[in-house]
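Input record (one chain):
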Amino acid sequence: MTNQKHPNILFFFTDDQRFDTIHALGNEAISTPNIDRLVAEGTTFTHAHIPCGTSGAVCMPSRAMLHSGRSLFHLEAEGQSIPRDHATMGETFQKNGYRTFGTGKWHNGKEAYARSFTDGAEIYFGGMFDHWNVPAYNFDPSGKYDAVLPKCNDPFNSNEVTYRPCDHVHAGKHSTELFADATIDFLNTCEQDTPFLAYVSFMAPHDPRTMPKKYHDMYDPETIELPPNFCGGHPFDTGALRIRDERLAEFPRSPNEVRTHIAEYYAMITHVDAEIGRVLEHLDASGQRDNTIIVLAGDNGLAVGQHGLMGKQNCYEHSVRVPLLFSGPGIPQNQKCPAYVYLFDLFRTLCELADVPVPDSVEGKSLVPALKQPDAVIRDRLYFAYTEHQRAIKKGSLKLIEYATGDQRNTQLFDVDKDPWELTNLAGKREHREDVDLLREELVQLRDAWDDPSHPMGQTFWNRVKNEFETCGEES
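The corresponding structure, as predicted from the sequence alone:
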């Protein structure tokens, strides 16, 4: 044990990891022994969500919400950067005596990174890239990060070359191992009497899905079971059917091709799990484990063939639900908490766990009541929005999704308790007419509470559905 007043925080953040990709939480097809250990030693929020996003790069607003504790329509632009008047998590802990370390993917601007962290290494200012050739920066105390690598091949278009902002590339070293090594190096510098917050942001399991052969060979596509909601294509336009993510597989979706994608997805997650285990071994060896709160979360989910989709630009469970685990001092062990929560609730929660004052700009709720009492209610309903095309509400077991793409309108109603794969649309059934009407009323209430109409994308969506929603309180 250490004598620190404040606990350390070690935060693992994965990229595109869906909520149901952990062996200990029911997925017997995947191997995640180190994450399983965190499940056994801590508390899992089984219904953690993101509110979806204001751009096709859903991870940008997701990460901006995480680090600012603010809701979707209270971010700057599409969430690409974090304004100075929005305190960041790292900045807040730094001002309260913490060493703050950030490695890996940072998709919210160099200025926000610079004011968040006192330490860092292998910093990647971007979205997706070749895992074996990450264009990274060393930590710069001045916060400039203005070096640009000369021309290199674009991993997503072999016919083009591009400039990448970075000051070095570790050619041939996988991103997951690169960021784990950087974290271990940082842990080796930590002193017992100074608390730290270490933010470890993996690029995996985001595509391009490549990993060491050892992990690739663990999963045979022929043995992978297709999800019950697999289909060749989505039945109507979601407003995001031809973006980059959806072009990762041919149309219509082929069972064999999707099995291959799932196998590679699982292999990348198992590789991440192994590197998390390596970091945890060093934490144990440092003698700091007993005073360290460990958090594991993902920035968004991913369809990988479900509903005929490949990406995350939708409001289905596979794309808006994410893993969220806590382990460490004061965290109940082997506890499952079904409370409806958002990732942007983490900022306030970690402040409370660490006895750090919460900045006024933070909007999220504390999850501490649910850690103490797993049946505590944090939120009784959830709001989701994808660009100008989709809005959704989840309350109890029911989820309503509304689509507006051009002059097309579609409505879905699912009972996610009885129908977790969201296979049966109840919206057209007479016995569920009242459910649709009531949820539409509440959708309008949440729309206003979230300041959705003040956002250009919100204005477009609500104008498209104006007639249908006027009876639910929409102004004429």
